[in-house]
Specification:
By secondary structure, the protein is mostly beta strands. The protein is about 10% helix and about 45% strand. Helix 1 runs parallel beside helix 6.
Length: about 800
């Protein structure tokens, strides 16, 4: 959009649609942002922006009473006689005088404790008054960056969308959303329909400012705000907070308001700092002005999160309801300094909605038709909070840049820089892009898959891949060829791959592949190529055991119904045993044991293989059920958000057939049940249960046995609920029945946060147990206790577990280290 036309529309739209406008400042002339402005005896209005400017839409002229309200300042009721529009009304607010009464000063009992107890006792009564409602929701998201680095890890960071000034500072993200929301307390339900969405500099205008994400509810015991924090009015608030009555004042309706400071008992507990405001006798929230640190929300890169909430009295249902909210944040990481604000405004409450049986479904978010295509005139009429000059400028600049950056000329110029070939490209890889035509051709460099194992020695791959995006709704296809060469066994293993995806709704995807490759005997791949290479070269420990297969494979997957995922594969393969071809290692032979053989059944047998070469066909048919799955429907895609109240179940049937030796054919059923349960103030509980059985016990090939993920590393990189900590990689397997269970609870700060001195370290206590049952073997168990969130300052990525195992009466123990991001 050209600037003159944009500016013209912006200017003319204010007098057309914004009847009362003005600026709000304090006595020093400083603008006041986030002031609530509304007609007296209503709860619908507007909010001032960061410059203190506001615009209030009203429908009639004549005598009106306008209310200006913000925490920390005296509420003003201004009587005006409107004779014409637009009507200018500037306001100066005075700071609220908060005083302690003599009774409060002289009382022996802490008056703040009495107030908080009354609030806790009346939580259900107060929230029942708005147990269901509909409302209009407006949200604006703003990210700024200061002194942005030009390069990071050698890569050019660009101009962040074109909003930076000469100091590389400015807005990098600006978005707005207007939606209609529906809420029900019991059973808890929430639904949102976005009627307008806008993102600066983007065509699709899809903003991710969801009303449900902004629903920060102090009346709940656990408040979701970056993490699950203990509400200052939770049932167990006195275990985490001390309270101090700072003073009182009267609101515009003569209600006595108590300002209460929150004093965390322990610095790094998951609690709030700041103050809450309580209405006397009603024992309801009047407002909140609180903050949390990165340590408290367990997001180390965050400096601080600041939350403000304003409530207003609704005569319709005799309740205090939320009308505005702002979240300010500061982030400083890797030299990037971000700050920003997400502000929200609620209006047009209806506390007596007529919900039908199908009002609430698993679809919790929808978009109105053309919600992302609203023009500037529409937005200026709809927007309850006016834009600042900086925000207007950002929209103007990025809308202009957007047109340019979509052009073939611009995209070709960008690709010309990106497509430069240099002397290191054959080693590091190279990609040629045509952004306008939406395709790319990539060359896989020598170091992309550089690895080492005792069968191939050092091995590397060269390959080409072509990618074509066919639309913006998830339709694309990719084709690739690759050749892997082992420098020790001097074998070339070529493979090809083709994949196609049709959309981002059900995500149907088909792939065809084939060639010659190597695979681990345990298809669950208990050790990564990188981990195996490090241990082999440094300590002469070749944990990974592999075989060769020449194969042709076809696969298909799709979400066939909400929460029901289907997958299938059909593979024909010639499987061939492999033997060590090198004894090379950086570790000296005299100080380390020699490499073990590539036979996982007998690590000392270097001449006999774990299986005989054979041909076989494998069919897998599986389904995953995410029970009662919630999802978001965006214009071009579907986002599945799951449902933590229910587990996820995966089932699979595997049939191997067509082998010349019929004993190799088998039928196997497996199932997996997993869940992550948010225990609120008491941490996080999760489990993973897996089991399987063969229809008939037969002497099948070793790679077709049911196997578990063991571990022989001190520093672990895999998921803690997917493997056993002290079990050798190929120690236990079966061709009969088996079950394994992994259970873990992270108490976060619920336990260690209450211990003096230790609570200053902000460590998390983690306890777990694992067990394994096989029909033809003894049971194996592990118990663990660990400390998470270990580190310094913002960098807390380490976790240490002490593990004790028991197998057939033989006990073992040890420590495990893992990174936990």
């Amino acid at each position: 959009m050209k600037y003159p036309f944009f500016l013209f529309l912006f200017l003319i739209s204010i007098p057309l649609f914004s009847q009362i406008q003005g600026k709000i400042t304090d006595k020093k002339g400083e603008p006041l942002s986030f002031v609530s402005i509304y007609l007296d005896k209503t709860i619908t209005g507007t909010t001032s922006n960061d410059n203190g400017d506001y615009v209030l839409n009203i429908k009639r002229k004549g005598k009106q009473i306008i209310v200006f309200q913000i925490l920390g300042y005296k509420t003003i009721k201004k009587v005006v006689n409107i004779t014409s529009f637009p009507f200018r009304l500037d306001i100066i607010l005075e700071e609220e005088s908060v005083r302690l009464s003599e009774i409060s000063i002289s009382t022996k009992d802490n008056p703040a404790n009495r107030i908080i107890r009354n609030v806790i006792a009346n939580k259900d009564k107060n929230t029942d008054k708005f147990a269901k409602y509909t409302a209009k929701f407006y949200s604006r998201g703003l990210y700024k960056i200061k002194d942005a680095p030009e390069k990071f890890l050698g890569r050019n960071m660009g101009d962040f969308g074109g909003g930076l000034d000469s100091t590389r500072s400015g807005i990098i993200y600006l978005s707005e959303t207007v939606s209609e929301i529906k809420y029900q307390k019991k059973p808890k339900k929430f639904k949102e329909k976005i009627i307008a969405s806008k993102v600066s500099g983007r065509d699709n205008g899809i903003s991710f400012n969801r009303a449900e994400d902004a629903n920060i509810n102090f009346y709940q015991n656990s408040v979701e705000f970056g993490n699950d924090l203990v509400s200052p009015i939770s049932n167990n608030a006195f275990s985490y907070y001390k309270f101090k009555l700072v003073g009182t004042f009267y609101d515009k309706n003569g209600k006595l308001i108590n300002k209460i400071n929150l004093i965390p008992k322990r610095k790094n507990d998951r609690v709030f700092n700041g103050a809450i405001y309580i209405v006397e006798d009603d024992w309801a929230l009047y407002g909140a002005d609180v903050s949390v640190t990165g340590a408290q929300v367990n997001i180390p890169v965050v400096d601080v999160l600041h939350l403000k909430q304003d409530y207003n009295y609704s005569e319709q249902n005799d309740a205090w309801v939320l009308i505005s909210q702002s979240i300010d944040f500061k982030v400083n990481v890797f030299g990037f300094k971000f700050d920003g604000r997400f502000s929200s405004a609620y209006s047009k409450y209806n506390f007596t909605p007529n919900y039908k049986e199908n009002t609430f479904t698993n679809e919790v978010l929808t978009f109105e038709n053309e919600a992302t295509q609203k023009d500037t005139v529409y937005w200026n009429k709809l927007r309850p909070v006016p834009l600042t000059k900086e925000e207007v400028k950002d929209y103007k600049i990025k809308d202009s840049i957007k047109v340019v950056r979509k052009s073939k000329k611009y995209l070709d110029s960008v690709n010309k820089k990106q497509n430069k070939f240099n002397v290191l490209s054959p080693i590091t890889g190279y990609t040629y892009r045509n952004s306008f035509e939406k395709w790319s051709l990539s060359f896989k460099g020598l170091i992309d898959e550089l690895s080492f194992n005792t069968i191939q020695g050092f091995n590397a791959s060269l390959g080409l891949s072509y990618f074509k995006r066919q639309n913006e709704k998830g339709k694309w296809w990719r084709a690739a060829v690759k050749a892997n060469y082992g420098f020790s066994d001097e074998q070339v293993r070529p493979t090809f791959y083709f994949s196609k995806k049709w959309n981002n709704i059900s995500r149907p995807r088909m792939s065809i592949s084939g060639g010659i490759t190597t695979a681990q005997f345990n298809g669950r791949e208990p050790i990564s190529k990188f981990d195996n290479m490090l241990r082999s070269l440094l300590k002469r420990r070749n944990y990974m055991k592999i075989y060769e297969k020449s194969f042709a494979r076809i696969a298909y997957s799709e979400e066939i119904k909400n929460g029901v995922y289907f997958s299938s594969t059909l593979e024909y393969a010639n499987r061939k045993p492999l033997f060590n071809s090198t004894n090379y290692s950086f570790g000296r032979q005299s100080k380390n044991a020699p490499y073990t053989s590539n036979n996982p059944l007998n690590l000392a047998d270097y001449t006999n293989a774990a299986f005989a070469e054979h041909k076989i066909t494998t069919l897998n048919v599986g389904a995953t059920f995410v029970f009662n799955q919630k999802y978001l429907s965006y214009p071009d895609r579907k986002f599945n958000v799951g449902n933590s109240k229910y587990p996820t179940l995966s089932v699979n049937y595997r049939k191997t057939f067509g082998a010349s030796n019929s004993d190799l054919n088998s039928d196997l059923f497996t199932a997996n049940l997993r869940q992550n349960i948010n225990a609120g103030n008491y941490g996080n509980f999760r489990y993973n249960i897996r089991g399987g059985l063969f229809l008939k016990q037969k002497n099948i090939a070793f790679m077709d046995y049911l196997q578990v993920n063991g571990n022989e590393l001190l520093f672990v990189s895999d998921n803690s609920l997917n493997s056993f900590g002290l079990l050798d990689y190929y120690q236990l397997f079966t061709n009969d029945k088996y079950a394994e269970a992994h259970i873990e609870h992270n108490f976060k700060g619920a336990v260690l946060g209450k211990i003096p001195l230790i609570n200053k370290l902000n460590l998390h206590l983690v306890g777990g147990t694992k067990t394994l049952f096989m029909a033809d073997k003894n049971a194996y168990t592990e118990y663990s206790v660990g400390l998470g969130n270990i580190g310094f300052g913002k960098w807390r990525f380490l976790r240490i577990d002490y593990v004790q195992s028991n197998y057939a009466g033989i006990k073992n123990d040890g420590f495990l280290f893992r990174l936990s991001f």
